[in-house]
Amino acid sequence: MSLLRNLLLAGVAAASLSGMAYAANDMSPEAVAERTKPVGSVYTAADLEGIVDTAAAGSSSEPAEPRSGDAVFTAACSACHATGAAGAPIKGDAAAWESRIAKGRDTLLNHALNGFNAMPPRGACGNCSDEEIANAVDYMIDAI
Ligand code: HEC
């Protein structure tokens, strides 16, 4: 189904739902107010309390959870390891990975952290923690 058709159906559904509370010919002040109210509603911070933790958003002192191997791979490794750019072994290419995996996970992790020939240290990811790099290495190893 096309996106446009989905949007239209959603719109029709929303319109018919909002009109359900009062009959179309109901002239009571409540019914008229309901029919003539603005289409959108504005949410104040108070409305959002409990829905969104507004106080914590963006100012959390909790350390962020380490990103998954999948997420780190997509963000920082896929440019080379999904394409083979610079001669990088492609994720899921068993022939390219088996001899590397034979070197042992520690060696692969060391090379991922410190660089190895054309493999840049940390895949040039400036904001990846050691744990996140390890998650991405495991993600590629597990794909074999
Ligand atoms: C700029 C391209 C590039 C990016 C980005 C990149 N790599 Fe690599 N990677 C390479 C290349 C090229 C090699 C092959 C190096 C060789 O064997 O000479 C490689 C090899 C590796 C190896 C195997 C090392 C070995 O000892 O055989 C691992 C593990 C690895 N990369 C992990 C990662 C991880 C994890 C990321 C993302 C955080 C990443 N790479 C991002 C280019 C890249």
UniProtKB/TrEMBL annotation:
Keywords: Electron transport, Heme, Iron, Metal-binding, Signal, Transport. It holds the Pfam family Cytochrome_CBB3. InterPro entries: Cyt_c-like_dom, Cyt_c-like_dom_sf, Cyt_CIE. Residues 64-144 form the Cytochrome c domain. GO terms for molecular function: electron transfer activity; heme binding; iron ion binding. Residues 1-23 form the signal peptide. This is Cytochrome C.
